[in-house]
Amino acid sequence: MNLVDTSDLEGALRRVYGQIPSGVLALGASVSGQLVGMAVSSFSTVSLDPPLLAVNIRNESTTWPHLAKSERIGISLLAHHQGEAGRQLSGPDLGTRFTNIEHVVDNSGAVFLTDALLWMDATHYDSLEAGDHTIHLLRLERTAEAEIGSPLVFHRSRFTVVVEE
Ligand SMILES: Cc1cc2nc3c(=O)[nH]c(=O)nc-3n(C[C@H](O)[C@H](O)[C@H](O)COP(=O)(O)O)c2cc1C
């Protein structure tokens, strides 16, 4: 094992972070009648009481300011077959992120992907600057779980699946 100092890694840090497998969330909201959303793999559960989830968002994200305007954010955990949706939700055109992706617009304004594994309706709780990203704490107000299904996994910049032993 040859440990390299992070100050020498620069671009390679993306690769290093990419070694850590994660699930993929779709964040979505209806803002003034427009659907806005993005894929997020940098997230973690934080607290049970209050129920908090953290999502780490690039400071230069042009999508987040739209999501920030919404009182509610829909969070969907993508299922193994939703890789295409994950790609589309990170595409360059904010206006077409939900095109041809089955979704539900909740009365609250939260937008959820149909066929996901887990749905969480969240409000903004707090945020913390963290380098070139900001940690946004979202408070989970309502949740629902699918009965079956396995998650989409993001690993080494690719979508993969959980292999059951
Ligand atoms: C699998 C995957 C995971 C992503 N995770 C994050 C993330 O955790 N934080 C983030 O800010 N952007 C993440 N992105 C990028 C956003 O989905 C989206 O591409 C980006 O916000 C687009 O730029 P914009 O916000 O300026 O529209 C991810 C993209 C993909 C495909």
From TrEMBL:
It holds the Pfam family Flavin_Reduct. Residues 17-161 form the Flavin reductase like domain. It comes from the Bacteria. Signal peptide: none annotated. Gene3D superfamilies: Electron Transport, Fmn-binding Protein, Chain A. SMART domains: Flavin_Reduct. GO terms for molecular function: FMN binding; riboflavin reductase (NADPH) activity. Keywords: Oxidoreductase. Belongs to the non-flavoprotein flavin reductase family. This is Flavin reductase like domain-containing protein.
